Amino acid sequence: MDAAQLRAAFPVLEKSAYLNAGTCGPVPAAAQRAAVEAWRLGTEEGRGGPFYERLIGLSDQLRERYAAVLGADALDVALMSGTSDGCGRVVAGLRLGPGGEILTADDEHPGLQGPLIAARLHRGVKIRAVPLAELPGAVSDNTKLIACSHVSWHSGAVAPVAELSKVARARDVPLLLDGAQGVGAVPTDVAELGASFYAGSGQKWLCGPVGCGMLWVDPAWLDRLDAPTPAYRGLETPSAGLSGALAPGARRYDLPSQDLAVIAAAVAAFDVLADAGLAELQAVAIARAAQLAEALRDAGHEVVPRGDSTLVSWGVDGGDDEAVGLRDRLLEQGIVVRDLPGAGRLRASVGAWNDDDDLHRLVTALA
């Protein structure tokens, strides 16, 4: 990895200590160029055959790239608008009903909590939440789905996935991992993780535009996960009319409409990271996040217990109001972090594109 070349790919780093990839990653200039070219094509040449041929071709390329980062077959990957979209399709597509229970962690993101709440309201499913580390021991005979984050958005703690997948397989209970803070940030080989479903974002650690993401479906669960809204590319033969069938594999779960600018920018952003070496980028980012956590502790801040991830959260005296105020004061100094509503914390997301100066600026500004 050429650190200087990597930083130069992201214009925002010229003026900011951008530590917010857990919300949205920095956008590489190559992604902007790809999006602009997509809009030029549609504006100047119209959205006819060549436009849609390019959209289909790039969509297939993006699926292949997402499959590569997941260690999966492209046939088993659907294109989503983000992690929440993927989580929602899984919860809605499973045949859950009254009397069943979904087991989840007690600090999940609203993007996963929303589908769980809907399942409770519309299907009579019970929701039980326990601390992330305690999930394996909390699975019961009544558990019909385990749904949790691969990496906690609040703390950066890593779920006990090996134990969870072992319990889930023994009980034939599906395991859904919310990979918003996982894919692109930490190793995400789905075969090793042992999940049934893995939903991930394209706009966070893969630095793509808002509106892109993925859902991996274990082939063993394909026939047990309904596809309620398949569209044109979700059909095996769109021209077959009502005698047609769903597309083979996970493509049947694809979001119905895709924008060429989003797909093109997502492919371009992915390639910037792939060219630098995704595995190396992850290792560097995890190490730098640990470096930041240590520096914050040394400076007297209360760092939330975390795992080998790219997120670092710390408490702010004064609760949410002070956390928001401090976030805004940091932004005025060109340091971009986020607050965690309801927790009175700030969170820094550390990527391989961040250097020692970025970390030093944050720690110094907090003094």
Draw up the topology in text:
Layout: H1 3-8, E1 17-18, H2 29-45, H3 49-70, E2 77-80, H4 83-93, E3 101-105, H5 110-123, E4 126-130, H6 135-138, E5 143-149, H7 161-171, E6 175-178, H8 190-193, E7 197-201, E8 213-217, H9 260-276, H10 278-298, E9 311-315, H11 319-332, E10 335-336, E11 338-340, E12 345-349, H12 356-366
Parallel strand pairs: 1-10, 3-4, 3-5, 5-6, 6-7
Antiparallel strand pairs: 2-8, 7-8, 9-12, 11-12
Helix pairs in contact: 2-9, 3-9, 4-5, 10-12
Commentary on this structure:
Helix 4 runs parallel beside helix 5 (about 110-125). The chain is globular and about 65 Å long. By secondary structure, it is α/β, with parallel strands linked by helices. It contains twelve helices and twelve strands. It starts with a helix and ends with a helix. Helices cover about 40% and strands about 15% of the residues. The longest helix has 22 residues, at about 50-70. Strands 2-8-7-6-5-3-4 form a seven-stranded mixed sheet, sandwiched between helices. It has a three-stranded antiparallel sheet with strand order 9-12-11, covered by helices on one side. It has a two-stranded parallel sheet with strand order 1-10. It has two domains: about 5-20 and about 275-365, Aspartate Aminotransferase, domain 1, CATH 3.90.1150.10; about 35-275, 3-Layer(aba) Sandwich (Aspartate Aminotransferase, domain 2), CATH 3.40.640.
